[in-house]
Design a protein that fits this description.
The protein has 23 helices and 9 strands. It is globular, with a radius of gyration of 29 Å. Bound molecules: guanosine-5'-triphosphate (GTP) and magnesium ion (MG).
Length: 689
C-alpha cells in the first residue's frame, strides 16, 4: 500500500494536536487505579490520626504508590519500527530519531508521568564506563571473544578493523581527550529531539562534515543510556518505556545491552515487522524471550499498513508466529497484537490524509472481521485511525499486565505496611487507654524494648543469611551438574557422529537442551529462595507480634503483624545469550573442517563450549544469585526498620507518666481516633480481599 511516511520525519515537534487519543486503551487499568486510590485515602487517614513519625511513614507509602512506575522494554528486529512505535505511544512523533545507524547501542528510557509538571521535563545521558568501553575496543565485544575462541581469525580481523575505525571516528568527533568523558553523565533541565539526537543518533553522513558533527550525534559513540522525564497528563499513571537497539548486530555488544534492559522491566513488547514476521532468522530474539514468562511478553506485529490484504494475511502471520514460537521453545502463549506506528502517528498529528483510503478500508475490514470495531461505529476519523493502529490494544495489554502483575504486587506490599502501621497505632491506643484506666501499670524500662528489638533483628538477619546460603549452595550443585552433563552428552554425541559418519559430514548440536536444564535449575532456585525468604519473614513477624503481646499487653482479637511478600526473582534472560553452538552456518563449518582427528575434535569442542557456557553459569551463580539474596535481605531490612520505628514510639509512649501522651496521640481524642482508625483498617481489609 502507498503511504506518505514523511509524516514520521516531520511530525509536529512537541505538542501534537490529538494527544487526547493517548488515554484510549488504558480503561482496563481502572479497577487497579480505584484500589490504589482507596489505599492512598486509607494512608492519608492513618497519617492524620497518628503522630509525626507515623504520618511520615504513611506519606512515604503514599508516595511510593503514587509514583510507582511499571516499565516496559521494547525489543525486536532491526527496522521493525520500535522507535516509531515508542514515539507514537508517548505522543511525540519525532522525539527519538528513527532509522538510527547500526552502531548506536543506546537504550532510551522514557519516563511518562501524569503527576509531574511540564517544567519538570528533563533528560540525562550516561556514557559507557571505561571497563565497558575497553571490553568493546580491546576484545571486540562478545563477538570478538566468540570469534577468537572458535578460531575464526578472519572474522576476528574484521572485527578488529571495525573497532579501530570506530575508535578513530570517536576521536575525530570528540577530540583526543574523549576518554575522559567515559563513566560520566550529562544532565539537562529540558529535552527536545535535537538534544536527544546529539546523544543517541549517529549518522554516517556526519563524518565528513566536522562542523555538523559538533552538534548532531556528537556523543552518540559513547552514550550508553538516555533517560527522558516527560509530563504526560493523558497517562493514567507513571510508566516507563524503554527503546532498545535491534538485536541482530554484528558486535553482539547490543545483545548484552538488550539482556540488561529486559531484566530491568517486568514486561517486554517484542516488535516485529509484518512483512518479515518471525522466522528462524530471529533465533537470537526468540532465545531472549524464551526465558521470560509468556504473560510478560507482548508481541507487536508492526507496519501492518504495508499489508495488501490484512484480512487474510494477519491470521496467517499470527499462525506462523505461534508455530515458530512453539517449535523453538519460545513463549508460545504470548499475546500477539497487530500495529501500525504509521497510522498512530497520522492520528496523533491529525494528518489523516497521509493514510490512503484503501489502507484504511483494508485495515477496517480486518478490524471488523476480528470484532475489534463495530461495523456501524460512530468513531471520529482520528479515533478510528488510532484504534486501527493497534496502539490502544498495546496499552490495554500493558494495563492488564500491570493490574495482575507489578501493580497488584505493589498494592499488596503497601497494604501490608499500611496494616502494620495501623496495627501499631491501634496498639498505641490500647496502651494509652490502659494507662488512663489503670494507673498502677508500671512504665516499661527504656532499655528493655531496645534489647528485644536488636535480638530479633540479629536473629532475623542471620537466619536470612543462612537460609539463602543454603538455597544458593543447592543451586550451585544443581547447575554445575546440569552444565557437566550437557557437556558430556554433547561430546558423546559428537563422538558418535564421528564414529558413524566420519568427519566429512558436519555435525550440529542444538544447545537448547542446556538452556532448558539451566532454566529449570534456576526456576527451582527461584521457588526455593522465595520459600526460604517467606519462612524467615513470617517467623520475624511472629516475633514482633510477640513483643506487642508481651510488652504492651495488646489483646485485640484480630491483632497480628503481617510479613511482607518475598521479592520475585528476575527472569534468567541471560540464558538467551548467543553462544558458538547457536551460530551454525559458515563459522561452524570452518571450525569443523579445520579439525583433524577424533581426539582433537572432542577435546577442543568440549573446551570451546565449556568456555562459552561457563560465563553464563558464573553469572547465574554470581550476579543473579547475589541480586536475589540482596533483595531478600532488603525486604527483611525494610520490615525491621518499619517495626523498630513503630515499636520504639510505642515504648516511648508507654514509658511516659499519666497525662503526658500527647506526643503519640491525643488521649482525649482517643475514642474518636479509634473510630477513624477502625474505618481505615476496614478499608485495608477490603483491599486484601
Ligand atoms: N509503513 C510503515 N513504516 C514504518 C512503520 N513503523 C516504522 N516504519 C518505518 O520503518 C523504518 C524503521 O523504523 P524505526 O522506528 O527506526 O525502526 P526500529 O525498529 O527502531 O529500528 P532500529 O532501532 O534501527 O532497530 C523507518 O523508516 C520508519 O519510518 C509503520 O507502522 N508503517
Ligand atoms: Mg530504533
Amino acid at each position: 500500500m502507498k503511504v506518505d511516511t514523511s509524516i514520521m520525519e516531520n511530525g509536529a515537534a512537541s505538542a501534537v494536536g490529538n494527544a487526547h487519543l493517548l488515554s484510549r486503551g488504558f480503561e482496563g487499568l481502572n479497577p487497579f487505579l480505584e484500589k490504589s486510590k482507596s489505599l492512598r485515602q486509607a494512608l492519608v487517614r492513618i497519617g492524620k490520626i497518628g503522630d509525626k513519625a507515623t504520618n511520615r511513614s504513611a506519606r512515604r507509602l503514599h508516595h511510593q504508590l503514587k509514583h510507582a512506575e511499571p516499565s516496559i522494554t521494547m525489543i525486536g528486529q532491526v527496522k521493525a519500527g520500535k522507535t516509531t512505535l515508542v514515539n507514537a505511544m508517548v505522543g511525540h512523533p519525532d522525539l527519538l530519531p528513527a532509522d538510527v545507524n547500526p552502531w548506536t547501542s543506546v537504550v532510551t528510557s522514557l519516563h511518562l508521568n501524569p503527576h509531574i509538571l511540564p517544567e519538570d521535563n528533563r533528560a540525562t545521558f550516561r556514557f559507557f564506563d571505561m571497563e565497558e568501553w575497553s571490553r568493546l575496543l580491546d576484545r571486540g565485544g562478545r563477538i570478538g571473544e566468540l570469534a577468537s575462541r572458535a578460531g575464526a581469525e578472519e572474522e576476528m580481523d574484521k572485527v578488529r578493523e571495525q573497532v579501530l575505525e570506530m575508535r578513530e571516528k570517536s576521536k575525530k568527533r570528540l577530540g583526543d581527550k574523549f576518554e575522559l568523558l567515559l563513566g560520566q553523565q550529562h544532565e539537562y533541565g529540558y529535552f527536545d529531539s535535537e538534544l536527544i539526537e546529539r546523544y543517541v543518533c549517529l549518522g554516517d553522513d556526519f563524518e565528513d562534515d566536522f562542523e555538523t558533527s559538533q552538534s548532531q550525534g556528537r556523543f552518540a559513540d559513547i552514550t550508553k543510556s538516555a533517560e527522558v522525564f516527560m509530563h504526560r497528563p493523558e497517562y493514567p499513571m507513571p510508566l516507563c518505556l524503554r527503546d532498545t537497539p535491534g538485536v541482530n548486530d554484528t558486535f553482539m555488544i547490543r545483545e548484552q545491552i538488550t539482556i540488561r534492559a529486559i531484566r530491568e522491566s517486568r514486561m517486554c513488547v517484542v516488535v516485529l515487522a509484518a512483512h518479515q514476521a518471525l522466522s528462524s532468522v530471529d533465533m537470537a530474539l526468540i532465545r531472549l524471550i524464551a526465558n521470560v514468562k509468556s504473560r510478560e511478553v507482548i508481541i507487536a506485529v508492526n507496519r501492518c499498513d504495508e499489508l495488501s490484504d490484512p484480512v487474510n494475511q494477519i491470521p496467517e502471520i499470527r499462525d506462523s508466529i505461534r508455530k515458530t514460537l512453539k517449535d523453538h521453545d519460545g513463549p508460545k502463549d504470548a499475546q500477539i497484537i497487530f500495529t501500525s506506528a504509521f497510522c498512530a502517528t497520522a492520528a496523533l498529528t491529525g494528518r489523516l490524509d497521509a493514510v490512503d483510503d484503501q489502507t484504511i478500508e483494508a485495515l477496517s475490514s480486518w478490524a471488523i472481521a476480528e470484532g475489534r470495531i463495530e461495523e456501524n461505529h460512530s468513531l471520529k476519523p482520528e479515533e478510528l485511525l488510532w484504534d486501527l493502529s493497534g496502539v490502544p490494544d498495546v496499552f490495554a495489554a500493558i494495563g492488564d499486565r500491570i493490574s495482575d502483575g507489578t501493580g497488584q504486587d505493589l498494592l499488596d506490599k503497601i497494604a501490608k505496611s499500611a496494616r502494620n502501621l495501623a496495627n501499631g497505632l491501634n496498639a498505641a491506643h490500647q496502651v494509652v487507654t490502659a494507662r488512663e484506666t489503670d494507673t498502677s501499670l508500671p512504665p516499661l524500662e527504656p532499655g528493655q524494648l531496645q534489647g528485644e528489638l536488636s535480638r530479633i533483628e540479629s536473629d532475623a538477619m542471620s537466619s536470612m543469611d543462612d537460609a539463602m546460603t543454603g538455597v544458593i549452595e543447592d543451586f550451585k550443585t544443581r547447575i554445575e551438574r546440569s552444565h557437566r552433563s550437557f557437556l558430556e552428552r554433547a561430546t558423546g554425541s559428537l563422538l558418535k557422529h564421528l564414529e558413524s559418519k566420519g568427519d566429512e559430514e558436519v555435525w550440529e548440536y542444538d544447545p537448547s537442551g542446556l538452556r532448558i536444564l539451566m532454566r529449570t535449575a534456576y526456576q527451582v532456585f527461584g521457588r526455593n529462595s522465595q520459600k526460604a525468604t517467606k519462612e524467615v519473614l513470617i517467623r520475624t513477624a511472629e516475633q514482633y507480634a510477640g513483643v506487642y503481646h508481651r510488652m504492651f499487653n495488646v489483646s485485640d482479637e484480630g491483632f497480628g503483624i503481617e510479613a511482607p511478600t518475598p521479592p520475585r526473582p528476575a527472569s534468567p534472560v541471560l540464558l538467551g545469550q548467543t553462544i558458538a553452538l547457536d551460530l551454525k552456518g559458515t563459522w561452524w563449518n570452518r571450525w569443523w573442517h579445520k579439525r583433524r582427528g577424533y581426539r582433537t575434535f572432542a577435546t577442543e569442542f568440549a573446551e570451546m563450549i565449556g568456555a562459552e557456557t561457563q560465563p553464563i553459569v558464573d553469572s547465574l551463580l554470581g550476579s543473579h544469585s547475589d541480586a536475589i539474596r540482596e533483595a531478600s535481605k532488603q525486604t527483611l531490612q525494610e520490615f525491621i526498620t518499619e517495626q523498630n520505628g513503630i515499636l520504639s514510639r510505642l515504648a516511648e509512649e508507654a514509658g511516659k507518666t499519666e497525662g503526658d501522651h500527647t506526643a503519640l496521640i491525643d488521649a482525649a481524642g482517643v475514642s474518636e481516633k479509634q473510630a477513624q482508625l477502625k474505618q481505615a483498617m476496614a478499608a485495608l481489609t477490603e483491599l486484601a480481599a
